[in-house]
Design a protein that fits this description.
Blueprint: E1 19-20, E2 26-27, H1 36-47, H2 50-66, H3 76-105, H4 109-135, H5 141-149, H6 155-179, H7 195-218, H8 223-237, H9 246-252, H10 266-287
Antiparallel strand pairs: 1-2
Helix pairs in contact: 3-4, 3-6, 4-8, 5-6, 6-9, 7-8, 7-10
Length: 293
């Protein structure tokens, strides 16, 4: 999801302090989730009996001795690869489950949407869990833009992330089409226009960014579950079924399936999404503001 975690100065998207290397140079983790391992381990240490804690200490030490460095050791190519791979798998799940659900539902749109919702939420949980140590698991240009706005990644890296997300998302749609023996190249004719749809996208993206920021701030070990749960809920309480992601919107415009959106409707969706992301960032800044140490 994001490189939005900052120092404990409690900036809008922040929640952790950067470490310092042996030479005194500040090292900042590039993503929301890179520090979750340490937070979770600390929470467990407080709650476990001392005997059990002592027994596990050796096992943890052995595991840590073989665990590669997270995130800060990942090169730019690896991060971009993770973003592209994650976006591809996400769109394969979104579009593929929509096709499968529609085929099996025998005209029952509610059943098709339920199948689409479950597959998308499950895939998000997996992708955030496995890719966050590498790239931060943004998988969303809105998340990357907010991260760059908060100076957690450079705008150059943000642009590269967005390009990787778009390429991966388009590849994921093509993969879904191929799996269901559909034409690879398509343009959607599914209309998604009007003020209610646009406001829904504003609300959906606002809620997503707020969920990410505040969960990272107060319950970082639960980010994957929180994001997946929010998106599953937003499928059902928004009129637009919660795209909440510019890369997803672009990719779904080239799929004339259950999950599609007309290319002419996509730009307005994206503007509404970015507006929601900006509003959530401002609100989170106010909610998490605290005195500086």
């Amino acid at each position: 999801m994001s490189d939005l975690a900052r120092e404990a100065d409690h900036c809008a998207l922040g929640c952790c302090r950067s470490g310092r290397g042996s030479g005194g140079r500040r090292v900042q983790a590039p993503g929301f989730f890179e520090y979750l391992h340490d937070v979770t381990a600390a929470n467990r240490a407080v709650s476990q009996p001392s005997a059990r804690q002592a027994r596990q200490a050796g096992a943890v030490a052995t595991l840590e001795s073989h665990r590669p460095e997270l995130s800060v050791a990942a090169g730019t190519a690896q991060r971009l690869g993770a973003e592209a791979l994650g976006s591809a798998l996400l769109l394969a799940a979104v579009v593929g489950s929509g096709i499968m659900g529609e085929r099996l539902a025998d005209g029952n749109v509610a059943i098709a949407l339920l199948a689409n919702t479950a597959a998308t939420g499950a895939m998000l949980f997996v992708l955030i869990t496995i890719l966050s140590p590498i790239s931060g698991a943004h998988l969303n240009p809105a998340v990357s833009a907010v991260s760059a706005l908060q100076q957690n990644i450079t705008w150059t890296l943000c642009g590269a992330y967005i390009a990787a997300q778009l390429v991966g998302a388009l590849a994921g749609v093509a993969t879904a089409h191929a799996m269901f023996d559909l034409p690879i190249a398509q343009l959607s004719i599914k209309e998604r226009s009007g003020a209610a749809q646009l406001f829904s996208e504003f609300v959906a993206t606002f809620g997503l960014i707020a969920t990410i920021i505040l969960t990272v701030r107060y319950a970082p070990e639960r980010v994957a579950a929180a994001v997946a749960s929010y998106i599953m809920a937003a499928y059902w309480f928004t009129a637009s079924t919660s795209f909440a992601n510019p890369a997803v919107t672009v990719a779904r415009s080239v799929s004339d399936t259950f999950a599609g959106i007309r290319p002419t409707d996509a730009p307005a969706f994206i503007l509404a999404q970015m507006g929601g992301a900006a509003a959530a960032t401002l609100l989170a800044s106010w909610l998490t503001r605290a005195r500086r140490c």
